[in-house]
Design a protein that fits this description.
By secondary structure, this protein is an alpha/beta fold. It has eleven helices and ten strands. The protein has two domains: 7-161, NAD(P)-binding Rossmann-like Domain (Rossmann fold), CATH 3.40.50.720; 165-267, Oxidized Rhodanese, domain 1, CATH 3.40.250.10. It is 33% helix and 16% strand. The strands form two sheets. It has a five-stranded mixed beta sheet with strand order 1-2-3-4-5, with helices on both faces. The longest helix is centred in the middle third of the chain and has 18 residues, at 89-106.
């Protein structure tokens, strides 16, 4: 795996680096390695129905940190597995990246240096944004503070896999247990942290929607004295929501629905659509 220990050694042997990664720690690692090595970084990113591409090259224009100085808070951006990606989108953006790499090899054409190409597959439209080099960029600015590769997992606020202990079983509830409680006439507050388009496909009766990305701004809508059962599609995003509410907002009466609405559709109510 590419890491802070080997990225410079690996990248040194290549003229061009094409970034097709799907996580923030690696994107920052690739960017910083390219800046330190003076290599062009042919960047591409996809999510759902949208894609973007550019060429980051600190010697001739901005780098990734000029566009995104800091990563988003951990857990607030769903992964491709959670949010989904239109199947043809990697091919479209990947072909654009390949085209940019060929232009750099040939020294011909107008590369996407200082230009961010945005692609909207649903409307089949391209548009372009101008990118400028940030003089205060911590790695390619006039007074850089990053002069070597750092711990990118820590920088992005991600717990290393070996340190993860999982969710406390006391904070979880199975779909069968929730069904039994509802059958007994109990009325816990069910909070759905999926995205609105998922809510339109399937939902639990009586649930309330606050997407995970909006939770920090809308936490005031929740009553910490009330028991809250959180759910998403499979249980991962709702686990992150639970951890946020416990650690950042002081909530204690929380349960995560194991398996999410997908488990509910399989074990409790087959009429609930699966996606």
């Amino acid at each position: 795996m590419l890491s802070s220990e080997n990225a410079l050694e690996i990248g040194r042997d290549y003229d061009i680096i094409i970034d097709g990664t799907d996580n923030f720690p690696t994107r920052y690692l690739v960017n910083d390695a390219c800046v330190l090595l003076g290599k062009p970084n042919v960047y591409g990113s996809i999510f759902r129905f949208d894609g973007q591409a550019t060429v980051f090259w600190a010697e001739k224009g901005p780098c990734y940190r000029c566009l995104y100085p800091e990563p988003p808070p951990p857990g607030l951006v769903p992964s491709c597995a959670e949010g989904g990606v239109l199947g043809v989108l990697p091919g479209i953006v990947g072909t654009i990246q390949a085209t940019e790499a060929i232009k750099l090899i040939l020294g011909e054409g107008d590369p996407l240096i200082g230009r961010l190409l945005l692609f909207d597959a649903m409307r089949m439209k391209f548009r372009e944004l101008k990118l400028r080099k940030d003089p205060d960029c911590p790695i390619c600015g006039t007074h850089p503070t990053i002069t070597k590769l750092i711990d990118y997992e820590q920088f992005c606020g991600i717990t290393p896999p070996q340190a993860e202990t999982g969710l406390n079983p006391e904070w979880e509830i199975s779909v069968r247990e929730l069904q039994a409680r509802l059958d007994r006439g109990e009325h816990p507050y069910i909070l759905d942290v999926r995205n609105p388009e998922e809510w339109q496909i399937a939902r639990l009766d009586g649930a309330h929607l606050i997407p995970l990305s909006e939770l920090p701004q809308r936490v005031g809508e929740l009553d910490p004295s009330q028991e809250i059962i959180l759910h998403c599609k499979s249980g991962k995003r709702s686990q992150r929501a639970l951890e946020f509410l416990r650690e950042q907002a002081g909530f204690r009466k929380l349960k995560n629905l194991k398996g999410g609405i997908d488990a509910w559709a399989v074990e409790v109510d087959p009429s609930v659509p699966r996606y």
